[in-house]
């Protein structure tokens, strides 16, 4: 089985954006509202076939959040958000868990809704780029996750069926999309992330990548 990892929130910690939202909105919790708006924006883009790069949508979500709160979102603030997204820190459990999986012979794939250039920079500045056998972006298929073409893109790279992939993410919508495409799924319950078992049950789940990787190493062959 080939392991496929989501990036933002799953491996990289968007809580690092809290000071920016505190400065702009006077409330760090607005970060969550912005991210939900961003998710809504790319879901709409996926459903309507109106693909735009991730950075464009991130800025749009910030502008929309600003309008709701009566806060001016100028070009400088939009640019600053993108700069911060490019330098998100990894969750502490990421590097050791990826190293353990590589040592056991698993093939590791990064699959992001961001652009390829952006995710390469994000992973490189955290020293994680070399942990992956390949880094893929939905830019190549102009379809965001949870659209099925995004997961098929990863399968096509490896010349396998989606059934040979395990999608690992901190987002229920990502895993539901992956399962619909035929993948196995593994959920990381990062802070604030939940999944409703009456709606969807992933194949594996844990509250850290350390625990999740141990489950996978015990049950999934490389």
Automatic annotation (TrEMBL):
Gene3D superfamilies for the chain: HAD superfamily/HAD-like (3.40.50.1000), Putative phosphatase, domain 2 (1.10.150.240)
Enzyme Commission no: 3.8.1.2
InterPro entries: 2-HAD (IPR006328), HAD-like_sf (IPR036412), HAD-SF_hydro_IA (IPR006439), HAD_sf (IPR023214), PGP-like_dom2 (IPR023198), S-2-haloacid_dehalogenase (IPR051540)
Annotated catalysed reactions: an (S)-2-haloacid + H2O = a (2R)-2-hydroxycarboxylate + a halide anion + H(+)
Coiled coil: none
Role played: Catalyzes the hydrolytic dehalogenation of small (S)-2-haloalkanoic acids to yield the corresponding (R)-2-hydroxyalkanoic acids.
Protein name: (S)-2-haloacid dehalogenase
């Amino acid at each position: 089985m080939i392991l496929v990892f989501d990036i933002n929130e799953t491996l990289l910690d968007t809580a690092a954006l809290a000071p920016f939202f505190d400065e702009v909105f006077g409330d760090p919790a607005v970060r969550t509202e912005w991210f939900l708006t961003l998710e809504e924006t790319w879901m709409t883009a996926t459903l309507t076939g109106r693909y735009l790069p991730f950075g464009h949508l991130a800025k749009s979500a910030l502008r929309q959040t600003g309008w709701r709160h009566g806060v001016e979102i100028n070009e400088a603030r939009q640019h600053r958000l993108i700069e911060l997204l490019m330098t998100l820190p990894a969750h502490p459990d990421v590097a050791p868990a990826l190293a353990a999986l590589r040592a056991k012979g698993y093939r590791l794939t990064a699959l992001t809704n961001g652009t390829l250039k952006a995710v390469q920079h994000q992973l490189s500045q955290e020293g994680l780029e070399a942990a992956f056998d390949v880094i893929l972006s939905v830019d190549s298929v102009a379809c965001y996750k949870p659209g099925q073409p995004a997961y098929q893109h990863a399968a096509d790279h490896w010349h396998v069926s989606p059934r040979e992939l395990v999608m690992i993410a901190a987002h229920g919508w990502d895993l539901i999309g992956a399962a619909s495409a035929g993948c196995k799924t593994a959920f990381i319950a990062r802070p604030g992330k939940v999944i409703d078992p009456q709606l969807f049950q992933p194949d594996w789940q844990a509250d850290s990548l350390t625990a999740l990787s141990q489950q996978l190493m015990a049950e999934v062959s490389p």
